[in-house]
Amino acid sequence: MTAWATAVPSRDALHEAKRIALLREAASAFTRKGFHAASLDDIAQRLGVTKAALYHYFPSKHALLRECFARALEVGFEGLAAAERQGGSGRERLNNALRFYLKEMIDELSCCVVLTEENALLPEDYAALLQVRDRFEHALRELIRAGIADGSIVPCDPKLAVFTILGAVHWVSKWFNQSGPWSADAVSQALTDLLDRMVSATPVATLPVDIAKAAKSGIKPSKQKKTAGQPQ
């Protein structure tokens, strides 16, 4: 009995795995077609199950959208926590948080662009998730402010900087192709480097001109230069 218990997934584990698979497929469908154009029939067909089976995990399409939002924001806070554990300047923590967030959005959520579908949320879901989204955005602004204070980020408007950064990050799923030449690792690194150059007080002189080749050759991003106001 003990051997089987460790070799076969528990009922709860199997249920959660199916739930996550459904969430990934829903996120992908919302990305490809938009929330209103995507149907539960589309999602069920791609998963090879009946539409009725989907209701065992989520009661409606709006519930799926709400969960996509919730998971994306959860990933955002996970990235912030990981960045804080790694430490460093405000710029370094911002880069680490964004890189984590972007890679997970591509890999785990299958290019989830639903954060641009906020108007499709039910009013009660929107109100609750808006508070969480605002906390995430304010945390990123604090990293911008910390970077300005320690000299690693050029003086700028933190609110505008975060809006610009998240706009670029959330739009990746509109053009990223899972079967294309660019990996999630390569894109998350390359885009983070591009965004870093926008706010860095000591921007790198060059960036990789071919992401696919840079990823295959194992080229690492340029090390951040220390500025006078940064801790050594």
Structure, explained:
- The protein has helices at residues 2-7, 11-33, 40-47, 51-54, 61-86, 90-107, 123-150, 158-170, 172-175, 184-199, 211-217.
- The chain has 232 residues and is mostly helical.
- The chain has a domain at 62-217: Tetracycline Repressor, domain 2 (Orthogonal Bundle), CATH 1.10.357.10.
- The protein is globular and about 55 Å long.
| Total number of helices | 11
Span between termini: 56 Å
Sequence stretches where pLDDT stays below 50 over 5 or more residues: 221-232
Based on secondary structure, the structural category is: mainly alpha
> CATH superfamily membership of the domain at 62-217, which one?
Tetracycline Repressor, domain 2
Largest sheet: none
List SSEs in N-to-C order.
Answer: HHHHHHHHHHH
> What percent of residues are in strands?
under 5%
Rough outline: globular
Oligomerization = single chain
The CATH architecture assignment of the domain at 62-217 turns out to be Orthogonal Bundle
CATH class bucket of the domain at 62-217: Mainly Alpha
Percent helix = 55-70%
